[in-house]
Write a structure and sequence with these properties.
- The protein folds into two domains: 354 residues, BirA Bifunctional Protein, domain 2; 111 residues, Rossmann fold (3-Layer(aba) Sandwich), CATH 3.40.50.800.
- It is of the alpha+beta class.
- It is 40% helix and 20% strand.
- It is elongated and about 90 Å long.
- The chain has an eight-stranded mixed β-sheet with strand order 1-5-6-13-12-11-7-10.
- The protein starts with 22 loop residues before the first helix and ends with a helix.
- α1 runs antiparallel to α4 and α4 crosses α10.
- A hairpin with a 5-residue loop joins β8 and β9.
Length: 498
C-alpha cells in the first residue's frame, strides 16, 4: 500500500519585490509621517483617506512601466453578475489618480479649491530591483481647483519645508522644477507633435525621466532603437532620427549657472512654439514667487532634466533630490537621488467630469527618505527598545509587574521578561535583541535591602567597543540604586542617550 503523500508546506518567504517591516522601521516611518503631516496641516491642507482599491477604469493608464502585465498594476476581475461581466479592479499605484475620482464624486460637497493630503501604501507591478519595491509608502499633498502657478510654487516651498522638518539640512537637498509645456514645445520643434506620435512621446518622456539612472548615453539609446540592460532585457526605444534626438538632448542639457540663464536658453529652444513659450513664462513666475518667499536657488532651482514619468502631468513638474553622497553596498560613493516628486495635472479630473479642473500636488517617497536618513547617520543609533525588568524569582512576578507599571505611568516604555526565566543569560540576550537601553534586576537579596540593580546597556555597548580595562573599571555600567529611585535612575540614562 502506497504511503499517503505529505501535504507540502508553504514556503515562508515574501513575494518578489515585497518586504516586511519591523519595530524600529515602523516607528521611524510613523514619526516621519507625523512630521510631514504637521507641515501639510500648517499649510492649510486637510487629511483624506481613500480606498486602496480602485476600478482600473478610474485609475487610467498612466503608469511608466506599461510593458508589465496589467499595465503595471495588480488587477483582477470581479465575478460576473448575470449577463454583466464583473468590473476590473486594481490596487492603487499612487494617491493622485484616486484623488481625481474622489473629487469628481464629491465635488458638490468639497470647497473649491480643495486642499488635501493623504498617506499610505501604493502598489506597482514593476520589475523589482535593489531598493525598488512593488509596495511602498507615499505621502501626498494636492490642491485641486487652483489654476495659478502660485499653487505650484507653494507646493515646492512646502516640499522644501518638509525635507528640513524630517532632518535633511539645507544644502543637502534641492527641489528641481521644470514645466511639461516647455518639453511639449521642444517635442513640437522636434517634429513629435500630433496624436499619431503619442507612443513616441511616451517613450521619450520615460527615457528622459531615467537620466539620473541611465546617464546621457542610456537616454540617447532609448530615444533611438532602444537599449539592453545589465540583465539582458531589451527596452524598445522611440525610434527618433539623429536630428530629433539632438533637439531632445539639447533640452535636457539646457541648465545653466543661474535660473535666469536657464530660462533664456529654454526660450531659444522653444522658439516658434506657443505652448513652449507659455511654459517658460510659468517657470519664470514660479522662480519669482519662490524667491519672494525666501526660497532661493539653494533650495529650489529650475532644471530642464526633470520631466516625471507619469503621463498625466500637464504643466510644472518638480522633484526633490538629495545631494549628499552615500556609500553603496560595495563602498562606492554615489548620490541618493530623488525622494519626492509631483506636478500639475489639469486633465486628470476631466476624465470623470468632462470639465477641466486644474490641480497640482507632490508625493514624498517616505521609505526612500527613511533609507537616506539611515545611510546618512553619522553616529550610532540610540537603542529605542523598552526597559526590560528581569525575573529572578517566579514567585515574585507581582513585584516585577509593579515596577513595570511605575515605569509606564512615568511615560517610560517598559516590559517584564515573559519567557522562561530559568536561564538569566537568555534574559540578557533578549534585552540585547530588543535594543533595550536599561535592564532592571531585583533578586531576593536586593529585595531585602530595598535596592535594585540598574544595568546601563547603552554605556555597556560603548565600553565594549571603545574602553580599556581600566576605563571599564572606572565607569561600571551596572550599579545599585534605592528601589524608591528606580524611575529617576532609568530617566537619567534615557535623558543622557536621547
Amino acid at each position: 500500500m502506497a504511503k499517503p503523500k505529505k501535504t507540502p508546506r508553504p514556503k515562508a518567504q515574501t513575494p518578489k519585490g515585497f518586504r516586511d517591516y519591523f519595530g524600529t522601521e515602523v516607528t521611524h516611518r510613523a514619526e516621519m509621517l507625523s512630521k510631514i503631516a504637521a507641515v501639510y496641516h500648517r499649510y492649510g491642507f486637510d487629511a483624506l483617506e481613500s480606498s486602496g482599491v480602485e476600478t482600473v477604469e478610474a485609475l487610467g493608464k498612466f503608469l511608466p512601466d506599461v510593458d508589465r502585465p496589467n499595465e503595471g498594476v495588480f488587477a483582477w476581475q470581479e465575478d460576473s453578475e448575470g449577463d454583466k461581466p464583473g468590473d476590473w479592479l486594481a490596487l492603487r499605484y499612487d494617491l493622485t489618480a484616486p484623488l481625481a475620482r474622489v473629487y469628481a464624486q464629491h465635488r458638490n460637497d468639497l470647497p473649491m479649491p480643495y486642499r488635501r493630503y493623504a498617506m499610505g501604501p501604493v502598489w506597482r507591478n514593476e520589475k523589482p530591483g535593489p531598493g525598488r519595491f512593488r509596495q511602498f509608502y507615499q505621502c501626498d499633498a494636492d490642491t485641486v481647483g487652483a489654476p495659478s502657478v502660485a499653487a505650484d510654487a507653494e507646493i515646492c516651498a512646502m516640499l522644501a519645508d518638509c525635507l528640513e522638518e524630517v532632518g535633511i539640512a539645507r544644502g543637502d537637498y534641492v527641489v528641481r522644477v521644470n514645466n511639461r509645456k516647455v518639453l511639449n514645445g521642444v517635442l513640437e520643434v522636434a517634429g513629435l507633435a500630433g496624436d499619431d506620435k503619442d507612443t513616441e512621446r511616451g517613450i521619450v518622456l520615460r527615457a528622459i525621466d531615467k537620466l539620473d539612472r541611465l546617464g546621457p548615453e542610456g537616454v540617447r539609446a532609448l530615444l533611438g532603437e532602444g537599449r539592453k540592460d545589465d540583465s539582458g532585457d531589451f527596452t524598445k526605444g522611440a525610434g527618433l532620427e539623429d536630428a530629433q534626438a539632438d533637439v531632445v538632448m539639447g533640452f535636457m542639457q539646457a541648465k545653466r549657472d543661474s535660473g535666469a540663464e536657464t530660462v533664456a536658453r529654454l526660450r531659444e529652444l522653444v522658439a516658434g512654439s506657443d505652448v513652449g513659450v507659455q511654459g517658460v513664462d510659468e517657470l519664470e513666475l514660479i522662480s519669482d514667487l519662490l524667491a519672494a518667499g525666501g526660497y532661493g536657488p539653494d533650495r529650489v532651482e529650475i532644471d530642464p532634466s526633470v520631466v516625471r514619468g507619469l503621463g498625466y502631468y500637464t504643466g510644472p513638474v518638480f522633484e526633490a533630490e538629495l545631494t549628499f553622497e552615500i556609500k553603496d553596498e560595495k563602498g562606492r560613493a554615489r548620490n541618493f537621488g530623488s525622494v519626492a516628486g509631483g506636478g500639475r495635472y489639469d486633465d486628470l479630473v476631466k476624465r470623470f467630469t468632462g470639465q477641466e479642473v486644474p490641480a497640482t500636488g507632490v508625493s514624498i517617497g517616505v521609505d526612500r527618505l527613511l533609507a537616506a536618513l539611515a545611510m546618512r547617520a553619522e553616529r550610532r543609533m540610540v537603542p529605542e527598545g523598552p526597559v526590560v525588568v528581569t525575573v529572578m524569582d517566579r514567585d515574585r512576578m507581582a513585584d516585577y509587574q509593579a515596577m513595570v507599571a511605575e515605569l509606564r505611568q512615568a511615560g517610560i516604555r517598559a516590559e517584564v521578561y515573559l519567557g522562561n526565566p530559568k536561564n538569566f543569560g537568555n534574559q540578557m540576550k533578549y534585552a540585547d535583541k530588543r535594543q533595550s537601553p536599561v535592564v532592571v534586576i531585583e533578586g531576593g537579596d536586593e529585595k531585602d535591602r530595598g535596592v535594585v540593580q540598574i544595568k546601563d546597556m547603552v554605556l555597556g555597548a560603548q565600553l565594549a567597543q571603545e574602553a580599556s580595562h581600566d576605563e571599564w573599571k572606572e565607569r561600571p555600567n551596572q550599579y545599585e540604586v534605592p528601589r524608591a529611585d528606580l524611575i529617576k535612575a532609568v530617566r537619567d540614562i534615557l535623558d543622557r542617550t536621547s
